[in-house]
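Changelog note: in this version the structure field was regenerated for every chain. One regenerated record is shown below for reference.
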Amino acid sequence: MTGHAMARLQPGESTERGRAARAWSPRSAHGDWAPAPGRPDPVEVLRAQAATRVPELVPIRYGRMLASPFAFYRGAAAVMAADLAGTPDSHVAVQACGDAHISNFGGFAAADRRLVFGPNDFDETLPGPWEWDVKRMAASVEIAGRDVGLPAKRRRRLVTDCVREYRDGMHGFAGESHLDVWYDRLSASELVERFGGRLGKKGRILFEKPFARARRKNSVRAVTKLTERVGGRLRFRSVPPLLVPLRELMKGSSTHEEERYARELMAAYAASLDDERRFLFRTYEFVDMARKVVGVGSVGTRAWIFLLVGRGGRDPLVLQAKEAQASVLEPYLGASEFPSHGERVVRGQRITNAASDIFLGWLGAQGLDGKQHDFYVRQLWDWKASMDLSTMSQSGLHAYTRACGWSLARAHARSGDRLAIAAYLGRGHGFDRAIARFSAAYADQNELDHQRLADAVAAGEVPAELGV
């Protein structure tokens, strides 16, 4: 999408469209990357984002990004979006994740209570070039490999196998019916069977542990970890700055005013739900609300958690309302068609994912700062499984990153012209090798950007709070 006119999803399928794209965007050209003349200072890009965030939380974001080049990469989606805007693409749009690094893949619960695997962060989702997601994912594989000390040859193998899974997956989806593609999903057990052949018995057990733990992550566990009883009443703990109850953020206000504010938010959220989900939601009673710091790149955006209960104070439900700001892709691909960024995130996730939280919805409301903010809402913990990449064996990382490649192909096949993408990719390994070259070059740049942030913190240009 050179020139980057507003990107939109297009119906229809065409093998010829994909083959023709090789003329203006050769597959080998994807391996070429160097910083553009006048490339924006990455610290300035991060500071521009900080202008719309909660000021006292921004130092935590910088501190978390300083932890390693991989941690920096996780928080630098806006930096990479600017870099990707100058790279070649085939002019085929998909509902892009926008931040498809491998830590943004994981397990989550489907409505039928099966644990499935796939992309699980859509804050930046927007229609855009499928190649941008592939490059963001592949570069994260290279950077993760460096983070755990793998030599260059093994990192290159990880990247090419991850991209090959994307390519092979897209060819498989190109041969399926529309409905079959929409029904396709990858369960946690299938992931191990399909991609864990090299793990061995002990490796498989270690690989399966995060998924086993995920089934215990639910609202009951959230209540145990995040709440306390005072005077017989359940409420969120105060652990500033990571968890701050509304009662502390609205000091001087009455309990009635606090509850009215929270109920206004809940009413706005309920309006986004389908009738049957709204009926279920209204069987719960609001109890408390708190601000919670989440993630790396998201730190500083407003994130609320809500405690609700049913059945006479039992049967807890903990929801998270996470602020949705403009996608980092918008400066290059055009504004979202949706009036609310919360709705943009929810609609994008529903297009992309084979399963979603039954409480997924959105709201827009005036914040405590008096300004309007958009949010999307989901359960805080509903079997959410994430992998600690730093402790993975090489075979475990190999299995995991291949699963990411296949899952991204499935996500793209639901919204984009999968015949065109498959035809463009072809059956050979040229595209895989080109993306591996890109990933190595971009990982070098990411290390320079990480050092630039470290230098900025040391010089007092930006504040960082470490270890929080």
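Spot check on this record: DSSP finds 19 helices and 13 strands in the chain. The longest helix spans residues 430-458.
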